[in-house]
């Protein structure tokens, strides 16, 4: 007879647990949040900022798919999570972007006491109204966990009606699909690709699987993950620099049209003072790339690279290259980081297009960590990723705005958007569908 | 903190076990073996028969892929397996082919004491020489477990160098591939398909997964499994009737040319006396279908159906239909069971070809339970199924022969094959590649 092992304790635990927590570590967030957090903590400690959930896929009625009680339970659990000793030691001892002690001891001491602030939630017209009010240092840290929680609760809801066999087939297909992508990417010599998929992931475990698939499958070409926890646990590079929230808050606080026009460059100056080096990556599209480039001071052309984040990659990349050339710079010394709506086809086409003309890196998000299209045995549209973001909407009570190169990605009060458009103009902005 | 469950006892068991047994039940065999066994036990209890392993894929040097020590350990373990009470009760109490008590109490009492007989093994030119000598009642029962053991040991050897991640991708792809097949088969209304894949399976667990995939995926169209254990455990029909070994032994024992020519019909007479009903399925190709049909007594046309097993399905099926029509029978009252080298394309094409003209059932073997082509992350030809059989080679010391409709599937001493060809002729026999 063969000894059949069954762990009774595990079985009992499984059927008695109250909650399967989605956020189990404060490091389960994007690295750029920590980089920005240190800057906010050093330079803008007293600023208040409100972050708000925005579901750009309005056809999906989130509050009908996800139970608000479950959502509260997950948000509440995330608020109980603290930095562990091991995590603090790793942040202090690890090198990031080749630099030791990128985080100052005082900042880490403050972070050790950090907890996520309260939230405000309601339901309206089938959507959640989810706001985070408070100090910018606190509310900024909700962006990624809030998105990860909602996306994973949505996946769980989608899979609730599925039997064990259907789930098995679902994940088998998703793995097979992911591996096809890995095999195609393996063909590109000298590729640099990172995981940027935390916020839109199907689930934490699935993101971890995808990260390990890239690690195993494309080796050196896999240059890191934006997820700090996964970077720590898998000895990977943590990657990411900064986001739209910095120019958005700077502009909101500036109040005058002139101040708004200068906000983006002021961010770069502050960033440079704090970090510099490889971390000098320009995110040009907050208020439109064309306006950004037209008024950019000379020194912006000295920065390491650009991250065009809302134009199609080839068009957006060509625009930056042209500008570098106009400024007398050689694009081959520069890097373009693509991170908007990438999938394997886009990555391959973009790579082939720019090969030899500029250095490139790809920050692969939703289609890496949440591509379950056609994977369910029975059609299940709920497993399709949606375009969900968590944006700063106010700073010290003043409205915050993002224009983007794609008007569909604009956020903010319509009248404020009008005002910003008068300041920046709308040249080269073009509507594109936003899937993810 | 989240409670992490680890079963220490399981971990310890896993790293201390001596053997992961492949054959854990005497019912882990094909149903037709039990049907034939009862007939052999009733009518030919004193006949000696030798079964021999034959690797038709001679390019694969089995003895270099599989360690003879491991093979012995598995064969030895299989010899320790006995019918359990639960199994005996199920065989007695279950209905097979709509008939209660198909197995007689005396036979089941004998089977309760059954153990697999000894084996004789050697290595030569990179192949195993594996023989089972003894009573036909005993040696016949080695066919399926011997093949299942060797095929699974070969899979294990193929996967030995693979890491946990590679294995994960391998099975994910195999599952995804299998599910594509399920979805294609689902399109055919009124399909009848059974699992015939025990002997060539990748592993027991994989066969079980495939069977459950069919159960879940095509529902009513999945009419059963030849594997008795899987039928019992999953409340499926156990299917299968008889095999070439019956006419082969009958012919060997007959000795005279006339006796050899009549052997096949004699088998059918005995079979009919014992079983009848839905179990009246003719296997016509042991010594060539053309000869079989030409000399068949009238009553053969009254049988329920035919299982053409070595001609291409459409050609083989048309041949039988033509014969039924010549005999004045309506093929729509008859059934054709296809079981040779099927895959989804063959099944669909055959189904479409005969739709409405004859009833059909498909016994799906190797390509159901051992299709790992292109599933490994790194190319791994060792995972490709081979054409391995275990055939009766002698009866009471006399040579046994199979001609088949495909000369490449012929077995036996070349001089004996010559003799049989003189008796039966070789019309309509045509060489086809044998993959599985």
TrEMBL record, chains A, B:
- List, for all copies, the residue spans of the domain called Nicotinate/nicotinamide phosphoribosyltransferase: 192-421
Q: PTM details?
A: Transiently phosphorylated on a His residue during the reaction cycle. Phosphorylation strongly increases the affinity for substrates and increases the rate of nicotinate D-ribonucleotide production. Dephosphorylation regenerates the low-affinity form of the enzyme, leading to product release.
Keyword S-adenosyl-L-methionine attached: no
- Is the keyword Ligase in the record? yes
- Start and end residues of each Nicotinate phosphoribosyltransferase N-terminal domain: 27-151
Q: Source organism's superkingdom?
A: Bacteria
Instruction: State which pathway it belongs to.
Output: Cofactor biosynthesis; NAD(+) biosynthesis; nicotinate D-ribonucleotide from nicotinate: step 1/1
Q: Print the keywords alphabetically.
A: Glycosyltransferase, Ligase, Phosphoprotein, Pyridine nucleotide biosynthesis, Transferase
Can you list the GO cellular component terms from the UniProt entry? cytosol
* Phosphohistidine carried by residues: 244
Q: Which GO terms describe its biological process?
A: NAD+ biosynthetic process via the salvage pathway
- The entry's protein name is Nicotinate phosphoribosyltransferase
Q: Which organism is it from?
A: Oricola thermophila
Taxonomy of the source species: Bacteria, Pseudomonadati, Pseudomonadota, Alphaproteobacteria, Hyphomicrobiales
